[in-house]
Amino acid sequence: MPHQCTTCGRTFPDGSKEMLSGCPDCGGNKFQFKPAGATADEGSTPAEQSSPTSDNRSDQSDDFPSTDFPSTDSQSTDSPSTDPQSTDSPSTNPAEAAATDDSAPSDSTPADAGPADSDTERAARTDPADSTSTPPDESTGTEHVNERSEEDVAQASTRSDVVSPDELDRASRPVDSESGADRQGSADPDAPRPDIGKLRDELNEQFESIRIVSPGKYELNLMELYDRQEYIISLQEDGRYVIEMPDAWGIQDE
Amino acid sequence: MGLLTNLKDSISRVTDGLFAADEPKRIGIYGPPNAGKTTLANRIARDWTGDAVGPESHIPHETRRARRKENVEIERNGRTVTIDIVDTPGVTTKVDYKEFLDHDMEKDDAVRRSREATEGVAEAMHWLREDVDGVIYVLDSTDDPFTQVNTMLIGIIESQDLPALILANKTDLPGADVQQIANAFPQHETIPLSALEGDNMDEVYTKIAEYFG
């Protein structure tokens, strides 16, 4: 019984889409998640149910009492005690967005996830044979789809309804910067810093008029430059542009 | 050819009529890098005002910001033509700092120059769109004129109906081939000159007065 409505107690199988629009029985929009391995009843102490918890969630957890998770915030769908996968509305809470890179949905009651617990859990997450049944995974949702069971594909798709690709991207950034950091020292001119490379790509998409091949190396699309109403008056070291907008025309002298 | 010239003259007269009589026309000096644009701009400015426009260099992209010399009064056949000369950075589709390394430049300086040159091209293209009333297109007559940049720029100039004068520069160098330039742009009149030596500048001024006066 992975998901349970915290209002009426109705349970839903893992990956179920039934509760996406709220509990069909009582309309409740708050659910708790119980991993398959932890099917203890809800009366059990949260620590026992504790499953891998993301750092963000752990940090945030201190703000919430541990005992009354069903009622922490009756309106909130992003309360830490709520399974992110069971929420049915798009989340605007950054904490929840960040939590989506944590493949192990947590029903842990926040206050119990103290710093020590977090460490343990973090360690546990790196173990693929984690007994909490949900495969530990810090990667993005795309990989979830590849690695998880059919049932979990449904979860992944559910999640994709809630989290925008941008948020997923943001959530997975630490991994990127780590790999980027390795390249930082290299002489590869294309990627002096990982985010600069990304920024460059972005800019190249937006400004086809000037393509920054590498620092000091540019390709120019003359027609684009000619056609643009605003014009680029300064290129910054990090690949940014300063452009003069049409409104400012006439101000600049020479 | 005579027909074409007549046609061009009448177009020229029509466009002339569109300009306010006493506003000096802004004439952009365009062309690929190292064609001698700044040398020409300096030559014109020195001949008629006594001042130079900017430093000249054999290193490409010496001019990385458009420079303007205002109120250059050129006298031709008892008539005075007043123009503003805009010396623009050389237009190119690729800028690579490595080409500056051959000129005893440190990498950092070369990279900065490259960035500034790119900004300069953007600026030159912007001026072409917004701010010039006529174009002097300078080509190095020792180079092949059939390039993407030349074709594109001449095309843009024509599409804007801007009066354009094509100058085949560097005729003092061995290997200069003015005819090749004339062949490349048969729809325009090509004037040979050496801006560095001052060769054939009289004809250039006559044509400037004719085209932009």
Automatic annotation (TrEMBL), chain A:
Pfam families given in the database record: OapC
Superkingdom of the organism of origin: Archaea
Stretches with biased composition (Basic and acidic residues): 119-128, 167-176, 190-203
Biased composition (Polar residues): 46-55, 129-143
Ranges of biased composition (kind: Low complexity): 66-117
InterPro entries: OapC-like
Annotated region (Disordered), positions in chain: 1-205
Name of the protein: Zn-ribbon containing protein
From TrEMBL, chain B:
Domain of life: Archaea
Segments forming domain G: 26-170
Any Pfam family: MMR_HSR1
UniProt cross-references to InterPro entries, sorted A to Z: GTP-bd (IPR006073), P-loop_NTPase (IPR027417), Small_GTP-bd (IPR005225)
PANTHER family attached to this UniProt entry: TRNA MODIFICATION GTPASE GTPBP3, TRNA MODIFICATION GTPASE GTPBP3, MITOCHONDRIAL
Name used for this protein in its record: GTP-binding protein
